[in-house]
Structure formats: C-alpha cells, structure tokens
Here is the input.
Amino acid sequence: MFEIRRYTPAMADEWNQFVSASKNGTFLFDRRFMDYHSDRFSDHSLMCYREGRLYALLPANEKGDTLVSHGGLTYGGLVTDSRCSAKGVLDMFTAINDYLRAAGFRHVVYKAIPWIYHQLPAEEDLYALTAVCHARLTIRDISSAIVGTRRLKFTESRRSGLRKALKAGLRICESDDVDAFWHILNDNLTQKYAVRPVHTADELRLLQSRFPENIKLWLVYDGDTPVGGTLLFLTPQVLHTQYISATPYGKQHGALDLLFDHLINHVYADYPYIDFGKSTVSDSADLNEQLIFQKEGFGARAVCYDTYEYEL
Here is the structure.
C-alpha cells in the first residue's frame, strides 16, 4: 500500500508544495531552508506515497546506522496533510521501518513537531511511535510560549525594565542590519557560554533573502547605536524568537523589555502563539533558570519539545 522513497533534489518542487499545503509543516521544512547547511548533514529524508499519491514527508539525515529527524532542525517530525488518518500513519510507520531496515539502519532518533506549530491536530505520529515502534522518550526540552487569546501581564521586573527603556529614550525598528545584531549575539554567547551562534551572519542573510516574509529582524537603538534585538521566525501558527540578545548597556536599560512589549502587545498582537524557545541545555538535563525567568516574565508558559528513540 505504501511506497517509501528517499528524497532527491529533483523532488524539491513536489516536496515544497506538500509542505505548504500540510497541516503541521513550516518553512523550516522547505528545501530552500533545509538545504542551506546540506554540507553538514547527509540528507536521508523520506517521501511516503500511498497508492501513488504523496501522503507524508519525513525530514531526516543519516548518521552511521542512525536516522535522525532532523539533526539540523529544531524539530523534524512527520509532515502530513488533512487527509492523513491514524490508521494510515500506523501502516506508514510499518512501511518506513521496513524501508529503514532494508537500507541498513538500526536506530531512529525522532524529534516531534511541537503541537503549537500544528494548524490542525497532527499527533498521529506520537501514537504510532509507541504503538508500532515502541519508542521511548529520551529528551524533553522546555520552551516558553504565549497564547494569543490568553495573554498574561508582564511581571514587575519586566515592567521595571520597560520603564527604564522609556526613560533612556530607546527606540525600536525593523531592520536588515544582520551584521550588527549578529555581533551583539556572538559577543553574548561567547562571553556567557563560550559558544557561537548556530547560524553565521552570511547564513542568516541568505535565509532572510529566501524567506523575507518569514524571517524578520527587530532592533533596539540608543540613538544610532543598536543595543539589542531579536530575530523572528514566523510560521502560520507561531512567532518564534530564534535569537534574542542585548549589549550590556541594553540589558541595563531594559532594551528587551521595551522590544517585547512592542512586539507582543502591538506588532504581533494577533498571533496565535509566541514561542520564546528552549531554556534547557545538555540534552534537557539542565534548566537555565535565569533565561526561563525572563521569558515567564513576559507571560510565557511551558511547551515541551520532545525527542524519541527506538531500535529497528
């Protein structure tokens, strides 16, 4: 009933059309986004056909005898459309696993798409992971999200920062100055965690040029000097803060409090969800309490990003 095919670049148009019409796909699954770092991952994405019609996609890469869905993406689970059924997904996972065994795989790492990104309920895969694959939950990262229809008030610490920013005369605008923001971000990550941003400035410019309606940069200025900002990924259901950073001056004067008051309560007030991203490190073992405190101060509450594993 099902035919599982490995993705090739010749299938890009068919792949992208399915993503755009799916019930849980985002532009991160568009091949123009996925393939920007194709040199770092050995792609082994799957296209699942049922009676000749494309039924689902599985963005994935291979790492030895392990299939990972997907090592280069925040989430990478099964992409489906409104015609997809629970029984169909059960049967499809059986077919996928048969394909993977025949291809020499022995292990699967599966990063599910968090439910807030679904335009329609799409958790048939989670049921199949236990019912067919006997998968185990191995990583549970915690993110923080705001529900558009039930927004909580900012805490006093965030309101205090907002007052400081207003007093300092800071201003906000949408910007294309990726380099200025990347340097603020890089300085922060290097000093605090001894790491660099996942994306280079060149990669961010490339992705923004390919997805100008989905990737937005907002900066906070003190006069003509940028002192903070955020890079946003906009999907149909979720505004995701891919990066947030401020200079020491910006932190001292509430630059991010001013920025997120403007974005949450004005520019993107109608967005269904605003997702501030993960606050866990070391494969979910350690909670960054200071980071999640800031996010919760804006009224965000917990959403989990789950990773499952199973043997073939």
Observations:
- The longest helix spans residues 86-102.
- The chain has ten helices and 17 strands.
- The chain has a mean pLDDT of 95.
